[in-house]
Please model this.
Amino acid sequence: MSTWHDLVTAGLIGTERAVVPAVGLPGLPPAEDEAGDPAAVLLDRAAMATAARRAGRRADRAEPLPVCEPDPRPAVGPAASRRLARLLSGEHLDLLTEWLTAVAVRGLRIPPQSLPALLDAARRGWPADSGLPRLLAEAGGPRAMWLAGLNPDWEFVATPTGDGDEAWRLGDVRQRRDYLASVLATDPDAARDLVTGGWPAAGPGDRVMFLSVLAGRLAPADEPLLEAALDDRAEDVRRWAAYLLARLPGSALGQRMAERARRCVRIEYGDRGPRLAVTPPTGCDALMRRDGITPGPARGRPQPPDRARLLLEVVARAPLCTWTEGFGLTAAQVVSVRSADWAPTLFAGWSQAAIAQGDRYWMAALLGRAITGPRPGTPAELEALRRLARRADPALGAPGALPRPELNAPPGAAGAIRVLRFRYDMLEELDVDYHR
Amino acid sequence: MPTASAARGKCRRRAYGAPVAERRDRARAPRDRGVPGGRPPGPAQRRAEQREARVASGLTELDRWLCDQVRQGLAASQRSGYRHWDDIAARMVDAQAPGLAERLRALAGVPYSGPGWEGRLLEEYALLRLLATACREQARLPPPLRDTVRSRVGFTVRQADVLASAAPVSDHWLVLARRDLDQDRIRTRRAWLRGQRTGRTALVLSFAASGELLDDSLAVGTEIDADLAFYPAAWPLRALVATRRDTVPGGPPPGVTVAGLLAGYAAALGADPWLDTWPAVLEATPARAPFPCVYDSAGDAVPLHPRAGDCWPLFALSGGRPLTMAGEWTPRGLWPLTAWDEGGPVPL
Model:
């Protein structure tokens, strides 16, 4: 008995060279030799067989998947689901981490149908954002882990199994990072002991990893280790240590920076009100270099020191109380004092400091200044404004929280307000879901 | 609440978005059809007769072309590229048989559709010859099958004639699923509806030029209280919304088993062997092995359509548990379009 396969073979070869097979269909008399064009006969038989095959199709068998354990948390509402879709479509994708954190903190669950796109977005963002897999595992819950078990692309969210201590001694950098972060979350002193114990034997990559994890919960007790790391052999380690010390309230590095800053920027009161008299550093000495100030990108031949850049780096690392306490003014007053051509540099430096030191009053003051004051124009100012809008208190995005921008507000200001508004709405929605 | 006349107005408006072929056909439809008396044929009737003649000669040409393909062997088709089908499709457009042209253009991708392409191409050639033969012999066919054959060749029925031809079916229609297709500068939206009382399934098409918005009045998961007028066919599926009353949110539809789906499709094929897109509402669980598929409580499985992609959102919604899903069943597999979880309908 010929089959469909024989018909296809004959069709593939062509009836010029192949004989048309007779196809038997259940319930029909066997095909007889028909007169006429063999090609037409083949097509007619194929039509009968096609209809019969489609109508007589049998079911296949499947291998069932494991069943995912339930997630008792309530799902986020429709507004938050739409917000996630907007984030994933590329609108403020950089706010995804904040959204996920807010979902996890409120004990909410991500709608399962959004998880695949979310996992894909996170995969593209990883390892640039080392905290994302952990956050995704928490906010995505068992369904995200279940999906990660089905698709190798998403394995990165799977939590490493095995003994924690073993992961610390024998694991790769990622497993060691995960273990250290989990210890830091529950017992900061034990985590500090792990770092100091592991420091002498650790390579430069591990030392950077140690510091990047400690950055999540910086404490005064970290200062001796960080101060020692300012003399580390590896440049990345030195840079991390300087960055963290500048964020640590009351650190010796902060005091050294405050002295440098006070030498550079003084307040003067004249007929037209206060103004800032600025004298940027003339060069970058060894002590400044040790504290993480870089004289500029290395080029082929020696360059004259970029004094604006040195000023920016000093201001960005000086404790913000240097200005408020030193001048006896509020943050909003300090940022409004005239500083002539140095205004863009000071704005960028203060913005970096406000973000690093997590100072919401300074961030609000700088944003208010940028929206109502003179146009931010330099690339450094625009970048500072962009980052402020993402790090400032989202309550600033509430209607009426910030002064209305001028009609011809600069694009940077309008964009910053949009981001703040987006963040405010995004968290409001989740609060509604949380209280429902 | 929209009134009946408003609903009719909507139908008229939507008509402007109909594809070119349909519009052209309407313009040529004989306006004096059915006028009693022995008046000499008017220009409209002469045009209609000319069209019949052109389609008939086009069918002959298509039949010859199909036989040539099989005589030379399908292996040659794979080497000949897109032009091969575009040329014969263009000749069917000239012969005023746009339905055939569309089917032929869709074949250009078959030789590159993976293993088994030669079988799929032979199926399509065979069904095309069956269609050409049926259209040539249409006088011998029962009227509903004749309507099916003529509509698949590309003769269209005016919306006014659909509304006048049969009593509309009144029901609460759940919008099961929607699928948008882009082709030839025209976007088509297929909306699948299920009558809650009659259990009938309906397909409502809407069209828009590319860049224009498609009709958004049939939202997935909603239930509309409406009268639907079905196009005459051997297995009527395509319908127009004749009158529309209330719209309310609907619950999940009752899903069938895989055996039920296959039996329903087989019954419809008995009436219309060219039917290759069939509404599926299943109670099933997705699985990934031995190939991406869904299976029911009896363990019966059907594959997911290879071109439907990974279908990860469907898997994510299921979590390894059964759920109600709606989609399009085709000979290549199920194209999932909607799934229901505790939160309601989710378009996939």
Q: What stands out?
A: Chain B touches chain A through 59 residues (CB under 8 Å).
